[in-house]
Amino acid sequence: MTTKVQSYLSFEGRCEEALEFYKANLGAVVENIMRFKEMSGPVQCGPGESPPVIPNGEKILHSSFTIGETQLMASDGRMSGEKPEFKGISLAITVPDDATAKKRFDALAASGMAIQAPTPAFFTTSFSIVADKFGVTWMIVSNTQPKAP
């Protein structure tokens, strides 16, 4: 078996909403969902840690989903009441063409924040950056190469 690194997103109580949003706007396919009510045994806490606040068993303990060929994992997290911040990380998504890049950018920016509108770059005909409504930053790259000068 080879080593595999995957991204795990914590949505602080909004995981189900995020999964539905990514299904509708990025074509995500949800592979599994495990809810807190399905967990066996007590929640384990480290020294000095408080147990998580679990408002109801319907919240998501763990999920996995794919966008294209990439598998991501997500949960409602520990739901500490603190607002999560995604600092120093972005997810990059490569799409087949500029039209798809614009469609994905518009969908994420509609309820989020446009950081860089789709623009040509030395490595692609369309590159953009957008933060979605959950605070996740996405870099959207068209798989279309610029023409040589």
From TrEMBL:
Gene3D superfamilies found in the cross-reference section: 2,3-Dihydroxybiphenyl 1,2-Dioxygenase, domain 1 (3.10.180.10)
PhnB-like domain location: 4-141
Name of the protein described by the UniProt record: PhnB-like domain-containing protein
Pfam name, any one: 3-dmu-9_3-mt
